[in-house]
């Protein structure tokens, strides 16, 4: 079982539009409403693979009730923590050429009692988990060290923990030596305090995160592929994608694929790449199931293309 923790979940509305023209009336050609948040997406991908997951998340107001209903309809077990504030609602505008514009609301502020209830809910479900995946930004009220506390508690319970966050929350958590961190290129650049222009730059940054406490680094480099850096060295995985419909949740699908395949080694990296490539071919934040995966298109190698420029350099 994979236990996911999403401290700042959302109700996500995605509109597919021909193009975004500021100041004009834009008519959508497609619309989706999905339960959102990085950990929620991981749980959705795990469920799509036919595996068990429990999603821990604070929920409040009408948007929170709809998130719970949508997850229940997908067969996902929800361990919700009631909060006074309303769950945030996010909007994504997906243009026909693949450009995505996201508007993310800040979300509610959690009280001290609500924060402790969230930690206690994780503690109660941790004994049955193979992995705990802690994902996303922290809501207002939670200190940057909150994830670090959660990592420490997970290790006391003997459970492996994967972390997908950034900024101060990531820096604090590294001190508690999370088993896995999954940054994208921008988050890698932010963590090491310098721009990344090539795959080799990303590799050096991932190695630095390992030196600072991460057991394994799974770095998403967008269209350029993914890097896996662990105690056995480094590997690079990629897969061609002819048409990108939406990259919302693609990194979350990758993390789910990695954990579903055991969370270690080349096979897990190949699964992560296959899940990420499948996710960007789907609308909104739809998570891929086995039918959407194309493992044969994935290439994994220990020969890292160090000089390859990143399609989108991270600053």
Automatic annotation (TrEMBL):
Keywords, ordered alphabetically: ATP-binding, Kinase, Nucleotide-binding, Transferase
Enzyme class (EC, first level): transferase
Gene Ontology terms, MF aspect: 1-phosphofructokinase activity
Residues of the Carbohydrate kinase PfkB domain: 20-285
Keyword Nucleotide-binding annotated: yes
PANTHER family: 1-PHOSPHOFRUCTOKINASE (PTHR46566:SF5), 1-PHOSPHOFRUCTOKINASE-RELATED (PTHR46566)
Protein name from the UniProt record: 1-phosphofructokinase
Taxonomic source organism: Streptomyces griseoaurantiacus
Source species taxonomy: Bacteria, Bacillati, Actinomycetota, Actinomycetes, Kitasatosporales
